[in-house]
Write the structure tokens for this entry.
Amino acid sequence: MTIDALIDSNVVVANIVSDHQDHLPSRALFAPGARQRFAVAAHSFAEAYVTLTHRGASGWYKFESAEAWAALEGIKSRVTLISLTPPQVFDSIRRYASDGGIGARLYDALIGQTALLYDIPAIVTWNTRHMAGLFPTLLVATPTDYLANPAT
């Protein structure tokens, strides 16, 4: 099965949260009749779950666990779940570190490596600047830009 684009966790969250500023364009990716085939990296579901359920001052959405899980299941039913193997994750971390990478951009690096592994030509994200800087050979686009000009 050919996958047209890999969806970032920030698009998953925006798709789920109805009052998110990017909800409508994120949701448009999954409009009835859409012809694109999307995937989400397994670790991106973990990132999305943490974002949805995080408490404290930096927790914006504060979903209950069952609510977050149900929402993620709804997304999973419309995408292909893919993942790096444990050795591929470790190698990606090594590569990121040897390139001088630090901090949370590692998660972007893992998403990009997953896209490369599965020969997925595009990443759909709201974090285009960071992702494009890490993976200049891939199409990196917001949901709005991707729908206007898909990689396929």
Observations:
- The chain has eight helices and five strands.
- The helical segments are 9-16, 23-28, 42-53, 65-76, 86-98, 105-117, 128-134, 143-148.
- The chain has one domain: 5-148.
- The beta strands are 5-7, 38-41, 80-82, 122-124, 139-141.
